[in-house]
Amino acid sequence: MLKLVDFYYFSPTGGTKKAGETLACEIAETVNKIDLAKKTIDALSADVVVVAAPVFGGRIPDIVSEKMAKLHGAGKKAITAVVYGVRAYEDALLELNDVLEHSGFEVIASAALVAQHSIVTEVGKCRPDETDLAEIRQFAKRILSEVEEGKIGIVSVPGNRPYKDRMKVPATPISLAACGGCGFCASGCPTEAISITGEGVTTDSEKCIMCMACVAKCPMHSRALPSQLQAGMEEKLGALKDVRRENEFYVD
User: Does the pTM exceed 0.85?
Assistant: First the structure.
């Protein structure tokens, strides 16, 4: 086991952090956790980083790309993971690896991991579950074994260049009548899209990435997608409710 890793993650509803942190904690005795949703991020302190990002429409969020691009890898090792809600991860893992490689990291292992869908929560419900976590821990052991034996090389992952077009946000979450104006949604919004005034809660559609952080963090459960959009998403993804997609692991 390594002494220290830096764990960078963007996890609006918690699934990405849970999966990525399990991987990081199995690799190193000490895990330095850096939340990419914060305005500023810490400089590198370890020789190995673990980076976990959610998949939005087959891509990683801009906020992950922009913040990781500011780091200087200088040949440090990176282990990457994208976390998706059963449907597909498409170009996301390749994109994440490209961002890190362009910043000077050497990506030595990658994973595509399944978590509960952030909008249609019946899809991938309760994942990552104990089976998933056991698989992640086993993957970590494999990485450590390869490192100790000096077999690690640059990993190859699925995906296409150019990447698919980014998902267009059709609508933003809204505040329901039960909203008490506590401000949790605004303070927890990673893109600062939400503002609260005397006239109520407003969401900037140009900034919102539909990450669902505001919905997950609302203590009154008074944030939600517009009912028509929610119904459309449930109809679109309904066939996946009984699908158990397997995690995928990549190491050279």
Answer: yes
